[in-house]
UniProtKB/TrEMBL annotation:
Cofactor: Zn(2+)
Protein name: M20 family peptidase
Domain of life: Bacteria
Domain (Peptidase M20 dimerisation): residue spans on this chain: 186-285
Pfam families: M20_dimer, Peptidase_M20
Xref: PANTHER family: ACETYLORNITHINE DEACETYLASE, BLL0789 PROTEIN
Length: 389
């Protein structure tokens, strides 16, 4: 494993330069110009690494452009196709990169997307370069995919991710490791729910009985949904937004709710969603009707035999380079969920160590870059020939 660490160390200066350049580009979900600029940078680096690159524009269900999915490929001498999956979008609006520019302090890098997931994408590319430098090509094909819409549930990238996942023997996902260094071996499923309630407006003082209060129905539905928490182990239901009414002397004729549903297991995810549908279909105020829209439903990624085998292999190669490897489940979903749904064996958290994602304090541990790139490169090399069943 010594040569892997040395080769990863040789890539460190380039990694730092690339990270600073990539974080300096605003690439929030939906900011198409910024996402394409970020894709241009990654494409140039992939081409320089000897990879063939394709770009595919994607749109949301309303046909609004979301940016490009970048797919870079490098052929090897073996038979297994190994997918490396990351994303270029962040949760931050345009102007964040200028207001909060990339900086390094006390061994940590800071900036929008530095950990989630620009640092991980660049670790994947560095691992490809490490294997090329050492002439280790036992894989059949390495495929690096970078999506532009992961932070909003990958509504445009889903078809391609499912195709790539079905074609791959394994998927190694490049979200950064947890802040304690753990890899990720399972993720909750998530559904973003939008409930629209329609009632009848009326004068609240003169003839309230002629109205049908959508706000009241939404309030009662909020309580009913909250009471579902605890019915199934690990299922959480949170009403995060409730908008209704406009004036205190008018019976509200419209309300809107945004709800977050999360679950560890597919059966519980489906059961909770079915119960939510039942409650929405029976508003608790006469004269009010409600409609439910489910946006970007992402099923749970449950631990499977293939994922457990990948975790075992990661621990094996980690021991060889002095990187202790543990793994955990996390409540946040990611593209790994969609790849697991396609039947692929998946392991996530293979980027460097980072934390405080989605916040102004987001950080990446620069001291973790070399060992984590070496770990990823070693795992790719091991997966290329090891028994996976």
């Amino acid at each position: 494993m010594g040569p892997l660490l040395a080769a990863a160390g040789d890539r460190l200066a380039a990694y730092h330069e690339r990270l600073a350049a990539l974080v300096a580009v605003d690439s929030g979900s939906g900011h198409v110009d910024g996402l394409r600029a970020a894709g241009d940078l990654v494409q140039a680096w992939c081409l320089a690494a000897g990879m063939a690159v394709e770009r595919e524009p994607v749109t949301d269900p309303a046909a609004r452009p979301l940016g490009d999915v970048l797919v870079a490929r490098r052929r090897g001498t073996g038979t297994r196709r190994i997918l490396l999956a990351g994303h270029l979008d962040t949760v931050f609006p345009p102007g964040t990169a200028a207001a909060r520019p990339f900086r390094v302090q006390d061994g940590r890098a800071y900036g929008p997307g530095v950990s989630d997931d620009k640092g991980g994408v660049l670790a994947g590319l560095a691992a490809v370069e490490v294997l090329a430098a050492l002439d280790r090509h036992r894989y059949g094909e390495l495929v690096l995919v970078c999506t532009p819409d992961e932070e909003i549930g990958s509504p445009g990238s889903r078809p391609l991710l499912r195709t790539l996942g079905a074609e791959a023997d394994v998927a190694l996902c490049l979200e950064c490791a947890r802040d304690n260094g753990d890899l990720v071996s399972a993720r909750k499923g998530v559904a973003d729910l939008e409930v629209t309630l329609r009632g009848r407006a009326a004068h609240a003082g003169i003839e309230p009985e002629r109205g049908a209060n959508a706000l009241l129905a939404a309030a009662r539905l909020t309580v009913a949904l909250d009471q579902l928490n605890g019915r199934w182990p690990g299922v959480t239901i949170n009403v995060g937004v409730l908008e209704a009414g406009g004036r205190p002397n008018v019976v509200a004729d419209r309300a809107r709710m945004l709800v977050d549903l999360r679950a560890w297991r597919v059966s519980e995810y489906e059961a909770a969603l079915a119960e939510i549908r039942r409650l929405v279909a029976q508003p608790a105020v006469s004269g009010v009707r409600a409609d439910l829209a489910v946006h970007a439903p992402t099923p749970p990624w449950e631990p499977g035999a293939g994922g457990r085998r990948l975790a075992e292999l990661a621990a094996k190669v980690g021991a060889g380079i002095g990187v202790p490897v543990a793994h955990t489940a996390t409540g946040g979903c990611a593209d790994a969920n969609l790849l697991a749904e396609a039947g692929t064996a998946v392991l996530d958290g293979l980027g460097p160590v980072g934390g405080a994602d989605h916040s102004p304090g987001e950080w990446l541990d620069l001291d973790s870059v070399v060992p984590r790139v070496a770990l990823l490169a070693a795992l790719i090399d091991e997966v290329a020939h090891a028994e996976l069943a």
